[in-house]
Design a protein that fits this description.
448 residues; Methylamine Dehydrogenase, Chain H; 1 helix
Length: 448
């Protein structure tokens, strides 16, 4: 959920596992080439040099929570340009925050990946009627010479990736009667074969598959009290490809070719905050939202599309993922718990908390909904803190082991009385690309 980001913004950290047929050096969509939080490049520095690294380039942009995508030598990033101050602070009346109308231009910028030079831009006048209206939430998806974006008010666009020409568009409210979520549309579009699968909303259309080239509806499926903020993901289990849709009422498995339901597991996070995409390790799926007792581990049937519950979290165990997508590694769940903003490790098979720390999220003192985004590179992790620092660390079931850190950006958003940067960076071409509400920067991480 890429403005002032709190657990109630619920728009970040939303991933799938579509494989995009682009070169490994690219970062063409949310969470990388395979949407699995893995940065596959080699030749990356082991630690930051004393005094840090100078940026390759930095370019001014406007507000937004969406991360950049990098493909074919271009960087794609969305923002919201307005004369008004729309970086709203959290409401003192409750966790939902203020719902503010803000007028401006929602933009998709295409930059040269080596220089930051603007190649083209597409912009549309938009009026936001959402909480935290600082900008779009969804990272662009680049595939097959096209780039797909979803705006905060539910505008789905398909553009020519090289020229910026608009090819087709949809508006989820007008076309499907979808109600704009309190914290805006936040689900990253998923390319699966010829299909572009989106979380839309409306009666019978929580999930909709479009022809990725024409925008023609191929199928629609599911109804829910709210469509939620999670994103679609396709897995293979029980001898079938399964499309997982986590709405505000349940985690659902569908046939990705037809939208026909296979199974449904009830789960209703508070405030409708189904945000994270279920994370898989072998035969197991971890999912959930705030509070911790809304998290659960499912076991997938090996013979058919079906599931069973292994455990439900408690208020003392597991973690409630919102702004940050967890990572499953060797039977351990690593992630950030929204309740206190602690980076933690959880035993996958029991839900038992192994350790937690605020060091990579907010520093020495823990704050509500402290945030850090992380990807795995080889045997270590690159963690981007809400403080604007990039951290290299080792994560094990026993401890968090920090190796090195340096500052990339200044925090610009507001959350719970503190300034934060809540946008997931891209890692491509042996570089990191990161943004806040004022600029986007590129730093080389190539080993000397």
């Amino acid at each position: 959920m890429h403005g002032s980001r709190t657990f109630s913004t619920g728009f970040l950290l939303i991933v799938g596992f579509a494989i995009v047929p682009l070169q490994a050096a690219d970062w063409p969509q949310w969470l990388g080439p395979n949407r699995d939080s893995v940065w596959p490049e080699t030749g990356i520095i082991e630690k930051f040099p004393e005094g840090g690294i100078k940026p390759e380039w930095r370019v001014k942009i406007a507000g937004g929570y969406s991360g950049p995508a990098v493909a074919d030598g271009r960087v794609y990033v969305t923002d919201f340009l307005t004369d008004a101050d729309v970086i709203a602070e959290r409401s003192p009346q409750g966790p939902q925050g203020p719902q503010i109308a803000a007028a401006g231009k929602e933009r998709l910028l295409c930059l040269d990946a080596k220089t930051g030079q603007e190649l083209w831009k597409h912009e549309d006048a938009r009026t936001y009627t959402i909480s935290y209206p600082a900008g779009p939430r969804c990272t662009p998806t680049v595939s097959g010479g096209k780039v797909y974006t979803v705006g905060a008010q539910g505008d789905l666009l398909c553009l020519d990736a090289a020229k910026g020409t608009l090819l087709w568009s949809k508006n989820f409210g007008k076309d499907y009667g979808a109600k704009t979520p309190l914290w805006g549309f936040s689900s990253h579009p998923l390319v699966d074969g010829q299909k572009l699968i989106c979380i839309v909303g409306g009666e019978g259309s929580v999930a909709v598959a479009f022809d990725k080239d024409t925008g023609k509806e191929l199928w629609k499926s599911l109804s829910a009290s709210q469509q939620g903020y999670s994103s679609p993901i396709v897995i293979e289990a029980g001898g079938k490809r399964q499309l997982l849709i986590f709405d505000s009422d349940s985690l659902n498995s569908l046939d990705p070719e037809t939208g026909t339901p296979y199974w449904s597991a009830p789960n209703s996070p508070d405030y409708g905050l189904s945000v994270m995409v279920p994370r898989r390790m072998g035969d197991y799926l971890f999912a959930g939202g705030p509070p911790r007792n809304k998290s659960f581990l499912l076991k997938l049937d090996s013979e058919k599309p079906a599931e069973s519950v292994v455990w439900h979290g408690t208020l003392e165990t597991s973690l409630a993922a919102v702004n940050t997508e967890p990572f499953l590694d060797a039977d351990t769940i690593y992630g950030v718990d929204a309740s206190k903003g602690l980076f933690c490790a959880v035993d996958m098979m029991t839900g038992k908390r192994l350790w937690d720390t605020s060091t990579p999220t907010t520093g020495e003192k823990a704050f509500n909904n402290g945030t850090a985004f992380f990807v795995k590179n080889g045997d270590r992790y690159f963690i981007f803190s809400e403080t604007g620092e990039l951290i290299i660390a080792k994560l094990t079931p026993k401890a968090y082991e920090e190796v090195s850190r340096m500052k990339l950006l200044e925090p610009t958003g507001l959350a719970f009385g503190r300034k934060v940067v809540w946008s997931h960076p891209a890692f491509a071409n042996q570089c990191v690309f990161a943004r806040n509400d004022a600029e986007i920067v590129c730093y080389s991480l190539k080993k000397p």
